[in-house]
Amino acid sequence: MGKTLPFAGAPRSFPDLVSDVLDSVEEAAAGVLAPALPLLERLKPILLDLRHRESPTPLSIRKALDSLQSVLQQSFALVKKPTGPSASAIGMIEDSVRDVGRCLGLLLLACPDAPLESKEAMGTLQREMMAANLDSWKGGDECGGGGREAYGGEIAQDIEDVVLIIKRGEDDQLGGALTVLEIMIGDGLVGEEDIVGVIQALLNRLGSAKHGYRLRIIVILRKLADINDDNKEIMANSEALSNIVKSLSRDVEESREAVALLLHLGDVLKFRQRIGRAKGCIMMLVALLNGADPSSSRDAGKLLGALSSNTQNVLLMAEAGFFVPLVQYLKEGSDMNKILMATAISRMELTDQMKTTLGEEGSIELLVKMFNSGKMEAKLSSLNAIKNLSCSKENDERLVNSGLVSHLLQILFSVTSVLLTLREPAAAILANLAKSESFLPKKDAAQQILSLLNLSSPEIQVHLLHALSSITGHPGAKKIRAKMKESEAMQILTPFLVTGKDEIRIAALSLLLNLSRYFDGVFSEQLGEFYLIVIVRLISRTRNEMEKSTALGIISNIPVNDKKATQILMNANLLPLLITLTTANTAAATTPARASQLDSIAAIMVRFTVPSDKQLQKVSAGHGIIPCLIKLLSANSIAAKSCAATALAQLSQNTVSLSRSKASSWFCTPEKPCRVHGGRCLVRSTFCLVKAGALPPLVEILQGEERDADEAVLGALSTLLQDEIFESGSEAVEEAAGVQAIMRILQIGSLKAQEKAIWMLERVFRNGGQKSKYVEVAQNLLIDLALKGDPVLKPMIGKILAHLQLLEMQSSYF
């Protein structure tokens, strides 16, 4: 019977809610729950009394009534044509009456303020409903016609009606229909002619049903699959099979039932062929295999094993990170299947963990064996697979130990046309293997690779250059580098700097960068003036930040005392270029390439500020190197800060003598003399740190957390404490908060930094004003350092304590 629903946005009043429940009670009593009519009739007066309740209605009463109505409406799904009640149907009615009794118990608890008489009536009725026994209705015609007439309607015995409810019924009807279907299946009432419709209806409804109903549907499908293989065939052929797959990704209980159902279907060939194409199925099975639920993991493993008879499923498993079947095919499969698996590995996007897992499961040895013994197609597919696996440290060691390197070199030296297609993957694998320390013991491999460079195509040359770069970069490759230094390696490598192929040129630069770190004074000589200028031009022209960074790194590694190289670089206008790059890089967002460039720029600037060449210093200052160095003091890299401080220290060493040479002319201008150096100081002509504003950023480095630049910064500040100017210089340092920063280094600095700091403090405390200001702090700090610090510091500390007039207290110790 139809009902008019209230407007969705307006909550029902309490009397309306009770009236709706009464209507449901009457409908149930006249229909499906007719055998329980006497009990339901006693429920009506209780509800009528409740409807006339005058006091405010608690939420708990509303919830109890909602539950009662829900139970009654679920029973409506069972109302069908009057064919007479069966024993199993009466059992369901008893269950529904007990559910009503439970709701009545909730209602009783929610009405503690009800009259005693009403509560006793509810309690008595609730107990009778919970103990409902309708035996007199069981047995069909034995109950007489009166019973059937009173019943008026019946639990669905027609399977078509059940299927219709499963297909189109509301959720509150679906539960009842599933219960009826379970009973009918148990009683053998579902015929062969109906089974297709039942299974299809269940699979389709599985896609839209709520959680609890999905679980029940899957359980019913498992029961049907257990009956015979024909039912499995029906499920396997269903277009709605994907709905079972979706349940694999839901909660633990549902996914457990879903994988168990799919395992039941696993012995059907058609199912095994189709399930791999179901979106996400293999991936979710692998996830369950690796999951925490033992039952799901066990069933998923069995199902994956069954599905592995199909090679396409095996490939999908591998993509999901389950490689056992794939490795098994590499071991025992046919030649074509081995090629198929190797080709798949070569094309997969593998994470480092996946590569390692494949190696651990034995794929490396199997692929090497396939390469050594297989025909051309097998060699190519296995080599490409090895190429994809060779970017893993563990796999690289396995490959090197397998003896593959000598075979790769043979391919690269071979002129046989049939092997040409193997050369590119062979070179790429060599480049990957060269990253491993285990590659180094391979005798003469580096020299062989070097000799191959001019015999190879550009695509091979790139890999070979990368291989050599990796080999020469290993700390343990000292003998290999020495051999390259003695050979004509530079003559082979430098022509690649003028190639038009960017990838080759950058790879050659990377190799030269490694060599420049270890070739000491002979590097620039072997490189030659022409190619040194070529590198400078590359810095100015390339738009590739990494190429620029590598080229700058090469120049920064040339020893500072190589005057010939310095002159070549000055003539090539490198310094103005560096100043321009510094401005650009300090203004732009920091990247690894830009940070590396600033490190190299600062290191190169040290060579343009050596204190022994005042003329070079003047030229550099004229180009604006000092403001550039001040910027580098605030760079994000501690290495750049250290080199910048070193360069400033070198410039400042000559400031005293340069300012004196200007002293005779300073009175001709209105400018006052420098308060530190006494003469006429200009940044570009006397390199005065005070005039340049270098003290605050230098002190800031000492106040920071990184310690690698301490010695260089202290070296720069100490130039203000030379004999002639230590009094005025100490005042300038103190004004920049430098004295506190220097004392901080006594506590946290390295031994060399501490020695420098003590030397500086001794100079500072010669100044009476500074001594009185810091005596108390310095006393405790210095005595503590003498007691706990390195013994080499004690004499120096004693000298400071003498200045502070504290030595008498500690004289026996010192």
Automatic annotation (TrEMBL):
ARM repeat intervals: 362-404
Pfam family, one: KAP
Transmembrane annotation, as ranges: none
InterPro entries: ARM-like, ARM-type_fold, Armadillo, U-box_domain_protein
PANTHER family in the record: OS01G0948500 PROTEIN, RING-TYPE E3 UBIQUITIN TRANSFERASE
Name listed for the protein in its UniProt record: U-box domain-containing protein 42
